[in-house]
């Protein structure tokens, strides 16, 4: 789960990382009045779960409250990478002497988290990684130790080799960033840019935090940071029902159990010349309500011309899925054909149930997919 | 022989009094697995499907000689359960629980790396040696004994392929679901090494998916060290970049971990890569080793 | 460093371990008035850095404030294992249904801390260990993990196998005891007895905490718990000067550099038929002030008939020791002979300095010790 | 040959700009040791006795090829310094600092146990291979090259014995002070194994003290595996029970860890145990192996 910059900054502040707090505005008028209160130039920053805000015009320096109003006007409602901006952060502009990058994320190959810093901050770190990898210093974080003081020192002196006073501040900051990462079950904590001001202060000018969805259960206070307005209705419904769902661009609506089988279903659809409208994994349980929600989500998409069920029952019981489907068909006008393949646990009971329903059954994965494609094309 | 589990495996179920734990205890028993103990703190002294319940793994192990543990506890308690099993000296721990926080797994992985306990999972369907024992949730009726070793990151996709093998008359030595999480206790590589050493395994099937570099590492091993023929299927060829496809592991970003890269590495290692899950049996038959 | 029961209980309370707090009294009158306020039977407990308080008569059950007064009268001023009791803790008496032992300490052979519990509490745990070792369940604490929840559960269910409600309380308590141990750099945290009351509450009825002297530097708030009144003046002086000192019963006062050489000096004195008055290690530095303090501490002991210096200079510079000694001899009436052996760094300079002084020099360890013994006997 | 350090050892000094670090850098240099780098965070770029100073061990190692680190930092920072050296890939870390909190050392010991870095200390005088290199604070002038391997838990007592050996014409292959703390990186056993494998060592001297069971473990090894003759001295025969004698390690409680028990174990293993430190040279001469 991503959280907004202003929320991330609150976590940082609680952990002793210096930030410029700013205030959140949902309208241009609010933005102007915040700028008025600040009484100095401000920066208006789009609060949206997408990278590249600056490049997209979502971050603007404003000398006056009027400029803040004008820029907020432009930014609120703007689309950045498909996400609508609904709030801006209005924050005092800093006198930047230098910009660095610091971040922690998981290193899958090492099975450890990794701390990365680069003296070239403020720009796309992936660009730095590509063009000047030596500029990035990495420290693998040992699970048994956490971020050690010596590691924080090495990273800090890499950033500020000729400025021990700033490097000492950076050591604390980096240790605190490590605490944020591990105490909150983050998958990413990043400061870009980490600045030194003309006055010699170290400040996290931006703050990016992604949370491990699996860790949220033990951080109810973080679950509250979820921005429901930032979510698509389909995504929200899926999340609440415990479905893994992604909208795609094709015509075959897919309901599958298991992530691997669902991915493979997409592949096989493509192999036979079709195109999937979505990825949807109903998971291991076979609660009929899940089937209903899955159908509802898929039918919101006007592109869908056929609904394909590909179920291999293990924990999932085929008869449960069949019952759920029949229930939906009896109570709803689906409007598109439904093709289904059910194999595995309680397969025969399921076939019996489906006999009553207006659905097309197939016995193999290849077969049901080919049938779905031909229906979508007809 | 087979790998990791066989008819001598003595299973302990952590979370036996839960819904899933109880159900699968029965399934495992019906398959003929020796389920000797269960653990649920505070329910020591009870019985579930005739299996005695203990308050701790150490106590259960001492009383029953269990050597393999299977975990069906809620995800946030899974790491603790794995560590409990490891500290109690289990040889094998199979963690079915899905949704274990990644930081928990970093700690568990690091702790186990120099210890004798093997972890399979988490977020996995477990392991089955057809005709001998199953530990986890792989449906027993879709498997049949034979000489194909199968290892997979996915659950239901495994069933799809195993069932296709069975229907084609290609039995399995052992099927291992290693789970789709980014940090898993057992890798493709670990399983390939075990299959290579197992005289009951004549050919290997590997079911991978996008994300990570485990398939590439496996390809390197196959190319350098493996004498037995291998077939593979990689899910996620059609997955759009940057989307997290259910499995925490199956996220694809930038140019790394793509299906194309994995398929290329496997083919370069001499692995027969299937276009469709349904083509796997044919590829195995063509190996002419069974 | 040991701290008192009432101080340990404060640490416990802050960590969420249930205790009966009580109040500290320094006089019988105070004890009586606390008992009056409690309004129920109390226990009066000697606060002293020594085990076996109960056996020594330092813990008394009192039905009335008058009994509390009388018992406090007896206990305050009492000697327990050579330590004078100066305070008592007056605490509400509990209705005890069962008593257990729980404790954490370092296991030197394993290089790990160990958690130990026994359902046979309230008595000497060393007796249980000797006579019924199976009654004690131990869990080795992995440094990389700390006390795990599963370990706490196993220990808790060992104590309360038939009482899941109490066992669950015990799980939290044991995890919290682990936190006390590691957060405060303890060498021992112990509850004996851990009781279950007739009302079904789990309470730490006693609390014993020993702190790692080496860890105190990072816990200034704990250093403040040091009971200066409980220390011998010589011990306090030695501690402040950074000397390792123990009083013994013999006649040869010893000043040595290095713990191993100091122990060996005691052995060699015994070997040649003498008896050491003390163990005193001036450590690695050779600050003349240390030599002065060492002399002062030793001369407080009327049994001392000779002062023996056995110095092997490494970091310690022999000339520094010689200068310190000459300074003391010039400003103080020592009253007993001083024999000295200096070998190693700057040995020759030291010999030159000592020529002026009224001391007897020897060149070997055996030689100087034999000389000291003969002087002590003369 | 010798053990652990020799003329090829390249030493890095952690805490080189401190009083002790600077002084002993010079002492080590005067002895002929290659001191190639120093580390003090914030003082990178400076020099101490001609030795370049760096901000981190990793940086220093990369620039100079240092393979051995010696630590003179305040005790509460020592564990961090040891871990830094280990993570930077040092082969040997010698920690002189005294008063390291025991919980720090539990973590360090556990972290290092499956890694290639050897730690000597903390709270130790270090190690010297006479005529080749010294790492730590053992005075060079009391040693002389030869074939006696010496290992000791004590500092000045080591000097006493080494000096007695030197005066008796008995040179040393390597002298190791393993330190008096209850949790030390290197044990008697580790050193005995190394001496056993070292062709330059013909006889071994062990200086133990009361507390712990390291001497008993060493005795078991000597009895079962060691071909070279050994002499020993145990300090603390006269120590009263229950007193902490300066060294954190040298505390004696109950019946365990007493001088008598250690002496008995060593004598049973065929070790010549000296009554006095001054008797050691005579015992070594009687071995007739030099």
Quick tags:
heterotetramer, A: 378 residues, alpha+beta, Dna Ligase, domain 1, D-amino Acid Aminotransferase, Chain A, domain 1, Rossmann fold, six-stranded antiparallel beta sheet, four-stranded antiparallel beta sheet, 18 strands, 38% helix, elongated, B: 290 residues, alpha/beta, seven-stranded mixed beta sheet, 9 helices, 14 strands, 33% helix
Structure at a glance:
The complex is a heterotetramer, with two copies of chain A (378 residues) and two copies of chain B (290 residues). Chain A has helices at residues 5-14, 28-38, 65-75, 125-131, 149-159, 164-183, 220-223, 233-241, 259-271, 288-299, 318-331, 347-355, 365-377, and strands at residues 23-25, 42-47, 59-62, 79-80, 83-84, 87-92, 96-107, 112-118, 136-141, 186-197, 202-204, 208-211, 244-247, 252-256, 278-281, 306-313, 338-344, 360-362.
Q: What does this molecule look like?
A:
The complex is a heterotetramer, with 2 copies of chain A (378 residues) and 2 copies of chain B (290 residues). By secondary structure, chain A is of the alpha+beta class. Chain A is 38% helix and 26% strand. Chain A has 13 helices and 18 strands. In chain A, strands 7, 8, 9, 10, 11 and 12 form a 6-stranded antiparallel beta sheet that branches. In chain A, a hairpin with a 4-residue loop joins strand 7 (96-107) and strand 8 (112-118). In chain A, helix 8 packs antiparallel against helix 10 (288-299). The longest helix of chain A is centred in the middle third of the chain and has 20 residues, at 164-183. The mean pLDDT of chain A is 91. With 290 residues, chain B is of the alpha/beta class. Chain B is globular, with a radius of gyration of 18 Å. The model of chain B is unreliable at 248-254 (pLDDT under 50). In chain B, helix 8 links the parallel strand 13 and strand 14 (272-273). Chain B has helices at residues 19-30, 57-64, 75-87, 102-112, 156-167, 188-197, 214-225, 259-268, 280-286, and strands spanning 10-14, 34-39, 47-48, 51-54, 68-71, 92-95, 118-120, 126-129, 133-136, 145-152, 172-177, 203-209, 230-235, 272-273. A 7-stranded mixed beta sheet of chain B has the order 3-4-2-1-5-6-7, sandwiched between helices. Chain B has 9 helices and 14 strands.
């Amino acid at each position: 789960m991503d959280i907004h910059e202003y929320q991330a900054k609150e976590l940082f502040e609680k952990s002793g990382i210096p930030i410029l707090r700013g205030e959140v505005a949902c309208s241009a008028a609010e933005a102007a009045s915040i700028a008025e209160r600040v009484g100095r130039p401000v920066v208006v920053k789009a609060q949206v779960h997408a990278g590249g805000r600056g490049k997209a015009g979502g971050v603007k320096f404003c000398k006056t409250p009027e400029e803040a109003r004008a820029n907020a006007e432009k930014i609120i409602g703007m689309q950045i990478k498909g996400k609508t901006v609904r709030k801006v952060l209005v924050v005092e502009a800093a006198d930047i002497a230098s910009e660095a990058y610091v971040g922690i994320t998981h290193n899958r190959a090492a099975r450890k988290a990794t701390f990365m810093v680069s003296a070239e901050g403020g720009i796309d770190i992936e660009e730095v990684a590509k063009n000047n990898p030596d500029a990035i210093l990495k420290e693998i974080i040992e699970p048994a130790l956490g971020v050690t003081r010596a590691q924080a020192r090495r990273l800090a002196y890499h950033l500020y080799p000729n400025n021990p006073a700033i490097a000492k501040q950076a050591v604390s900051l980096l240790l605190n960033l490590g605490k944020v990462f591990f105490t909150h079950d983050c998958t990413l904590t990043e400061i870009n840019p980490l600045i030194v001001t003309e006055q010699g202060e170290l400040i996290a000018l931006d703050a990016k935090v992604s949370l491990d969805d699996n860790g949220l259960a033990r951080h109810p206070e973080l679950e509250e940071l979820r921005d429901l307005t930032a979510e698509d209705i389909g995504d929200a419904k899926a999340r609440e029902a415990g479905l893994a769902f992604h909208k795609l661009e094709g015509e075959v609506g897919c309901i599958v159990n298991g992530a691997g089988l669902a991915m493979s279903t997409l592949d096989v659809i493509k192999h036979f010349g079709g195109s999937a409208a979505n990825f949807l994994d109903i998971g291991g349980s076979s609660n009929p309500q899940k089937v209903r929600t899955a159908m509802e989500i898929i039918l919101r998409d006007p592109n869908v011309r056929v609904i394909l069920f590909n179920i291999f029952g293990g924990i999932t019981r085929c008869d449960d899925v069949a019952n759920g489907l029949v229930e939906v068909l009896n109570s709803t006008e689906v409007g598109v054909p439904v093709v289904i393949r059910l194999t595995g646990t309680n397969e025969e009971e399921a076939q019996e149930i489906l006999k009553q329903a207006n659905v097309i059954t197939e016995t193999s994965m290849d077969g049901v997919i080919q049938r779905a494609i031909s229906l979508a094309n007809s | 022989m087979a790998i990791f589990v066989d008819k001598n495996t003595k299973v302990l179920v952590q979370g036996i009094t839960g819904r899933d734990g109880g159900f699968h205890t029965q399934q495992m028993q019906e398959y003929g697995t020796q389920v000797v103990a269960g653990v649920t703190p505070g329910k020591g002294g009870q019985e579930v499907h005739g299996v005695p319940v203990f308050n701790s793994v150490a106590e259960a192990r001492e009383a029953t000689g269990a050597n393999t543990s299977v975990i069906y506890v809620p995800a946030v308690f899974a790491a603790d359960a794995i560590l409990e099993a490891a500290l109690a000296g289990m040889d094998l721990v199979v963690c079915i629980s899905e949704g274990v926080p990644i930081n928990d797994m970093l700690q568990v992985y690091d702790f186990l790396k120099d210890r004798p306990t093997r972890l399979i999972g988490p977020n996995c369907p477990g392991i089955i040696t057809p005709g001998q024992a199953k530990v986890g949730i792989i449906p027993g009726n879709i498997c049949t004994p034979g000489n194909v070793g199968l290892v997979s990151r996915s659950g239901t996709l495994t069933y799809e392929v195993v069932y296709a093998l069975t229907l084609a008359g290609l039995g399995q030595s052992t099927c291992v679901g290693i789970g789709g999480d980014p940090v898993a206790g057992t890798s493709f590589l670990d399983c390939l090494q075990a299959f290579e050493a197992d005289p009951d395994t004549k050919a290997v099937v590997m079911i991978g998916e996008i994300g990570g570099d485990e398939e590439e590492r496996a390809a390197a091993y196959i190319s350098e060290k493996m004498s037995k023929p291998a077939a593979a299927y990689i899910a996620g060829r059609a997955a759009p970049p940057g989307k997290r496809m259910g499995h925490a592991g199956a996220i694809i970003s930038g140019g790394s971990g793509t299906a194309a890269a994995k398929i290329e590495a496997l083919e370069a290692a001499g692995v027969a890569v299937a276009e469709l899950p349904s083509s796997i049996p044919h590829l195995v038959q063509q190996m002419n080793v069974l």
